[in-house]
Amino acid sequence: MDSGLCLGCGLCSAVTRRDVMRMSPDGFLVPDTAGVSPEEEKAISEICPSVHLKAVSESDSSWGPALKSVKAWAADPETRFRASSGGLVSALSIYLLETGQVDAVLHVKSSDGLLKNELGVSRTRDEVLSGCASRYAPAAVFDRIREIMDSSDERYCFIGKPCDIAGFVNFEKAYPEYRGRVRFRIAIFCAGVPSASASMEAVRQLDYPSGTPAAIRYRGEGWPGLFSVRYSDGEVRSMSYGDSWGKVLGRSLGLRCKICPDGTGALADISAGDAWETANGYPDFTERDGINFAIARSESGLRILSEASDSGYIVAEEADTASLEGIQPSQYQRNLRSPWRILGVRIATGIRFDFGKYASWSRMRRYPLVSGIKECLGTVRRCISHKGGKR
Ligand SMILES: Cc1cc2nc3c(=O)[nH]c(=O)nc-3n(C[C@H](O)[C@H](O)[C@H](O)COP(=O)(O)OP(=O)(O)OC[C@H]3O[C@@H](n4cnc5c(N)ncnc54)[C@H](O)[C@@H]3O)c2cc1C
Ligand code: SF4
Ligand code: SF4
Fold first, then answer.
1. Which of 83, 204, 254, 297 could share a disulfide with 132, CB 3.0–4.6 Å?
2. 55 vs 156, more confident
3. Which run of H or E residues covers position 386?
């Protein structure tokens, strides 16, 4: 926490069984450590996904384990339209619910339409769709997880960012009583969580000073869809995805997201992101019908993809995993830079990450040495300036 590496995942509350998460002045969720006992702190430090993430083996490509990759989308036009990308994640979870393979879906929803994003439980198609589409803001994923899982013996599909999936894997290891309850893990690709302050800045730039925001939508209702705010008087103002993510939201990421070694969910059964069309090496955000790029990483992931396709829930076409380098160039660059940035944090803070092969020399060698050293030194400087009060 002192180094600005907390992801605000909420596992601190799950361990202590108290609501310890607070919004920091710079708009990130962090635990209030006052009153956390040394025993609780030890238990937290053993499962915190910010420092514990082991997924890839030396033989895995930049993208982690991949049994099969597809370009895919929800066959149901409403799901495809309302979702972030092609609606694949929602369609797969609806498939799991409607075929009785799970009783409920655990995923992030906004409880106030604005900045209160937390873990929700969906048991029907409509409930799944009420939580679809990305929320580019902090989300307390785990604070109520024990309360939710203790309240029934339901079997779940868990959807989350790659670090949420890592957090869940760590949680299950530490609390064996919950093992086996989550039958499927679906990851969304992730380039980082912007601060809540960045959402408010984007709202400010919409320039409707007399209005009180009633609901924020970050994207969806098209691909990529607009950043759109509905005000309490009914007025709706919007900004393009390129402007909202590129000029405001994506510029406010925390340090841990800047060094993230896994933006594509290597620990999930299936992970899914945007299958962007690219022009001159850059994603083309022209509005069109959404398409996901998805990777089946486990046998059960492979099975669900094939069953959901055979039973008409999704449309899927086989794709080459390596083509992701052109489709998601910024994720590819992040992968290459990440081990050098991790080294920078280690040098500046002394923190030893439990990242296994992600921080190995063989991964560092994939990036040119001079560029790697620059990334490393840049991260050292960033860590030092964080100690001076800047995140
Ligand atoms: C912070 C963030 C960064 C992202 N960065 C990338 C990226 O770099 N590249 C890329 O291809 N895609 C990125 N995405 C994901 C992308 O926007 C889509 O969610 C993904 O392609 C799945 O699309 P879909 O249409 O199948 O999902 P949908 O059917 O719309 O389902 C999306 C699911 O994501 C969950 N969700 C929404 N917000 C959050 C959140 N803050 N935390 C955890 N779960 C959440 C919802 O509960 C829902 O179940 C990002 C998403 C987020 C939230
Ligand atoms: S467990 Fe989650 S909330 Fe707690 S310190 Fe780690 S990242 Fe932050
Ligand atoms: S970039 Fe990585 S660390 Fe940051 S929210 Fe996404 S998956 Fe988690």
1. 83
2. 156
3. helix 369-387
Give yes or no for residue 17 having a pLDDT over 80. yes
- Cβ(129) to ligand 1 under 6 A? no
Distance from the alpha carbon of residue 45 to the mean position of ligand 2, in angstroms: 8
Distance from the CA of 357 to the center of ligand 1, in angstroms?
Answer: 26
* Mode of pairing for the β-strands spanning 182-188 and 213-217: unpaired
- Looking at ligand 3, which atom is closest to the CA of residue 334? 1
What mean pLDDT comes out for the span 95-113?
A: 97
| pLDDT given for residue 279 in this prediction | 81
Higher-scoring residue by pLDDT: 278, 118:
118
Task: Give the residue whose CA is nearest to atom 8 of ligand 3.
Answer: 163
Q: How far apart are CA 230 and CA 217, in angstroms?
A: 8
Peptide bond into 224 cis (omega under 30): yes
Please name which ligand lies nearest the alpha carbon of 51.
2
Asked if residue 292 has pLDDT above 70, the reply is: yes
- Confirm or reject: Cβ of 159 under 6 Å from ligand 1: yes
Q: What does the CA dihedral 327, 247, 280, 68 come to, rounded to 10 degrees?
A: 0
Query: Looking at the predicted structure, is the pLDDT value of residue 390 above 50?
Result: no
Q: Contact, 216 vs 203, CB < 8 A?
A: yes
Ligand 2, CB cutoff 6 Å, lining residues? 1, 6-12, 31, 44, 48-50
Domain ranges of the chain: 1-328
Helices (H) and strands (E) in the chain, counts: 15, 15
Nearest-atom index, ligand 3, CA of 191: 1
